[in-house]
Amino acid sequence: MALRKYARDHRPFRAAYLELWESGELRGRGERAVAVLADCKLCPRRCGVDRLRDNTSVCCTGRHAIVSSYGPHFGEERCLSGACGSGTVFFAHCNLRCVFCQNYEISWGGEGRATTAPELAAMFLDLQKRGCHNINLVTPSHVVPQILEALPLAVDAGLHLPLVYNTSGYDSLDSLALLDGVVDIYMPDFKYWDADVATCCSHAADYPEAARTAIKEMHRQVGPLVLDQDGIASRGVLLRHLVMPDGLAGTPHVLRWVAQELGCDTYVNLMSQYHPAGCVDQVHYGKIARSVTRREMEDAFSCASACGLNRIEGLCPPMQWQS
How far is the C-alpha of 285 from the C-alpha of 279, rounded, in Å? Predict the structure, then answer.
């Protein structure tokens, strides 16, 4: 299904966080966010550990964010990557524990190094200097305070690119309140509809409800995705849904919910690249120990059409489809 063009914003772009920076609120927001780390309940797990003292829980991250890598990325959605790349910052560890994670070494293994606020700000500025279209924060849910601590330093030095919050969707309203007026583009996953599947695949029975609540709040803050005159995203929600074998993701339920709750103009990427990764094996995870089939993807796109969704994109199909 071809992506249909939507809004084209011909006004000069201005990042949302610049208004908060000018009023002084951005720096205050960062200070308040860092203080929350002393009794961390930033994500739906609400662990309550003192991360200011470098104590850790599920996300394995203490006082400082751990950055695995950063640089221009050309494999994101075309409205993010454009011609010059999306300026991705990959944070290590994760508050969600997806057994099939394709970045397992990063999300579970924690490959990377602890990064101070000035160092993180310098990364943002370097990505801007290299011509990237945006700053794309990958797996940021557990490091919202560290991002907000670094952002004013980067803005002081001239950062002006749109901020992309690239998340699993396992976010709390408390964190999203800290990000209100800061993030330009929310890019959440909506992984599963069913709590039992979420428990088995991500050790988070409350994921479906948490994701629905978070995504609705993201949409309230920034609305549907808006593209500039060059087709590059400048503001709004871009939702991702990974189609899984045997319908385990609950794709029809997810897509109907999106159409009904967010609207048929919601930009949705139906992703076909699921394959066994992470710790998935035939013995323990037989139902998801294969890639998705062509028929499963065709059914997903047909469902999107039947729901009335008219801004559908597909990214990175498998090298070889199963029949």
Answer: 9
The CA R_g of the chain, rounded to the nearest whole Å, is 19
Q: How do residues 183-214 score in pLDDT, each as one tens digit? A: 999 999 999 999 999 999 999 999 999 999 99
Which sign, positive or negative, has the C-alpha torsion 65, 71, 75, 81? positive
Angle, alpha carbons 117-81-186 (nearest 5°) = 60
Antiparallel, parallel or unpaired: β 135-138 and 226-228: unpaired
Give residue limits of the domains in the chain.
8-315
Each residue of 90-136: pLDDT tens digit? 999 999 988 888 887 888 777 899 999 999 999 999 999 999 999 99
Residue 303 in tokens: 């469902």
Topology adopted by domain 8-315:
TIM Barrel (3.20.20)
- Burial of residue 230 (CB within 10 Å: 0-12, 13-18, 19+) is exposed
